[in-house]
Each structure stands twice: as structure tokens, then as C-alpha cells.
Amino acid sequence: MKEIYRDLNLTTVRYYKSLLEDEGIPVILRNEYTTASGITSIPIPEFYPNISVLNDDDFQKAWEILNQAQIKANNSDVDIICPHCGEPNPGNFEICYLCNKPLPEQSA
Ligand SMILES: [Zn+2]
What's the CA-to-centroid distance between 102 and ligand 1, angstroms? Predict the structure, then answer.
């Protein structure tokens, strides 16, 4: 098992987890509730939500998937508003993180 991604933003961590699972890569999410529960008001990276690939062999592939996703994220800082629930999603999301409905293609 190898940790591949760690971020204070649980939405992003969850999104990357689902991206990897969609590719058939088994991952586990840890510290999901640490930040939400208010255990600490000072963010400590040690306790950030993080995902690990279960099989070390998947690490390279998983890393490439996340790398691609991050490149996309850097290229799109405009939020996509979900047409189903109205929630703003980061521009690289293809599925609304809140209601799991597909988001419209960005016209940019
Ligand atoms: Zn939605």
C-alpha cells in the first residue's frame, strides 16, 4: 500500500479517489473525518485526508491519472455550476461531487 495523494480539501481527495476507482484501481481513503470534526483548528498535514493505492503495482498508473487530472485542474479555474443541484464544481470535474450527475462540457 502506497500513499498517492494528500490534501486538506476533502472534496478534491474524494474526487481523485473516484477517478482512480473508475480506472479499476483499488484505493483507500483515510482521515476522511479529521478535518470536518474540528479536532484541530490548525491544519496539520499529518492529519489531512489522503488516499493510498492498495497494490504498489498500481502506483505508477494512478500517479499518471492524478497528474493528468491536476494538469486539467490548473488549466480550468472556472467553476462549473451543476445544472441539477446548482452546486459550483471545480472546472475539471466531470461529475458533480454533490449529486453525482454529469456536468456539462466546458465551452472554454
Ligand atoms: Zn449537482
Answer: 8
**Residue carrying the nine cell digits 485526508:** 49
Give the whole-angstrom CA distance, residue 15 versus residue 70: 11
- Ligand 1 center to 84 CA (angstroms): 5
Q: Domain coordinates of the chain in residue numbers?
A: 2-75, 77-108
How many whole angstroms from 42 Cα to the centroid of ligand 1? 30
Give me the tens of pLDDT residue by residue for the chain, a chain 108 residues long.
Answer: 999 999 888 888 999 999 999 999 999 999 887 655 555 566 677 888 999 999 999 999 999 999 988 877 776 667 888 999 998 888 778 899 999 999 987 654
Judge contact between 6 and 32, C-beta under 8 A.
no
Q: In CATH, which of 3.40.720, 1.10.3470, 3.30.70, 3.40.50 is domain 2-75?
A: 3.30.70
pTM of the full structure: 0.64
